[in-house]
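Amine oxidase domain-containing protein
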Amino acid sequence: LPTFEDFGGNVYIVADQQGFESVVHYVAGQYLKTDSSGAIVDPRLKLKKAVQEINYSKHGITVKTDDGCLYEADYVMVSVSLGLKFRRMETKCLRKMFPDRDVPDATDILVPRWGSDKFFKGGFTSWPIGMDRYEYDLIREPVGRVLLHQRAHQQTLQWLCSWSLSCRSLNLLLPFIF
């Protein structure tokens, strides 16, 4: 897959009227149970669920969604935006940038309107100055039995390549599930 090193850092947006849901259904259909029409009927796939809390141990995982449902699993794959994962990093970054200054905790943060979506929060990949390949590999590691996948974890270009890497991640995880 092409990387930013191959083509530079320009960002292009592709709009498909079907949206990402069609890609999710295609990828999931490769691994999950479907009916004769191709619709996914596997009860393990949970769509349109907002994860509120994930608790994990060496024995398994419990996922709580904002509608109050609890799910238990041996492994889970979650896709999140950097805006969610690093929501509290702003102050820490400022303190690192200005070590000789007293940087108080943020009392409010202004986010552009596109960041108001609860699933994205306006996060965009921006590696800090001095981040090396070792640190990059560390943020890609699973957290216990939880595999977090997001666009920031890959070097390939654009959002569509994330789906390809999600498939690769899923292929690595499947032997442990089945």
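thats it. Strands lie at 51-57, 60-65, 70-73, 76-79, 146-149. The helical segments are 4-7, 21-29, 82-85, 89-97, 133-139, 158-177. bye
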